[in-house]
Design brief:
This protein is of the alpha+beta class. The chain has four helices and 13 strands.
Length: 210
């Protein structure tokens, strides 16, 4: 499934959660967004704001978030938070086409490595409520809007009872391969075009009958 279809599914999941106000608020408050994207000569510095939910305890656990990775994007100087109880690492996987962007597409996976207390009586893998602007990297390319994904894992007694993946569109480096892949992903699939053509033909036929 292409990334835009996955975004629609994520929106639908948030809509379902709206039947429980607490769930709806915490789903809507889980995101990765731009904190700043600034140029300095030929180099751009990307800083992300990452937030998981709104509950200080019994919050679904954030274990990973992902952005697309193309080798020609020249991403370097990656930093993760160090001044908190939660520790992170990252790795580049040039073969994981999580977002369905086609050949050459991979991900950068920002991964939780610590044990964090998420309620007064439990310590579990991952992190419950989380808020940080300490994720950054540099690239030679100016920004464009691209996908991200957050992996939230359930645990017994948590606010959520399923593992979910949320999607959105912060800025990512607009390398040639990235631009080509996003443009291809945004194009209607052949099946969609065929259905549209069939619908237009049917509309024309009905008008002729009138």
């Amino acid at each position: 499934m292409k990334i835009y279809g996955r975004i629609l599914i994520a929106v639908a999941l948030i809509g379902v959660a709206a039947s429980d106000p607490a769930r709806a608020i915490c789903a809507a408050n889980s995101f990765v967004s731009d904190y700043s994207v600034t140029p300095s000569g030929p180099t751009w510095t990307y800083v992300y704001w990452v937030q998981n939910g709104c509950a200080t305890n019994h919050q679904q656990l954030l274990t990973d978030f992902y952005i697309p990775y193309f080798t020609d994007a020249e991403i370097s100087n990656i930093t993760v938070p160090t001044a908190s109880a939660t520790t992170w690492t990252y790795f580049k996987d040039a073969t994981d086409d999580l977002f369905g962007l086609g050949p050459g597409a991979g991900v950068i996976d920002f991964h939780v490595t610590s044990l964090t207390q998420v309620s007064p009586t439990q310590s579990l893998p991952g992190v419950g409520y989380y808020d940080s602007i300490d994720f950054s990297f540099t690239s030679s390319y100016a920004p464009l809007k691209g996908p991200y994904a957050m992996l939230q894992t359930a645990y017994a007694g948590g606010l959520y009872d399923t593992t979910t993946m949320l999607f959105g569109d912060p800025s990512i480096p607009g390398s040639p391969d990235t631009i080509a892949a996003l443009e291809a992903a945004a194009a209607p699939e052949p099946g969609t075009m065929a259905l549209l053509a069939l619908g237009l033909a049917g509309l024309g036929f009905s008008r002729r009958k009138q």
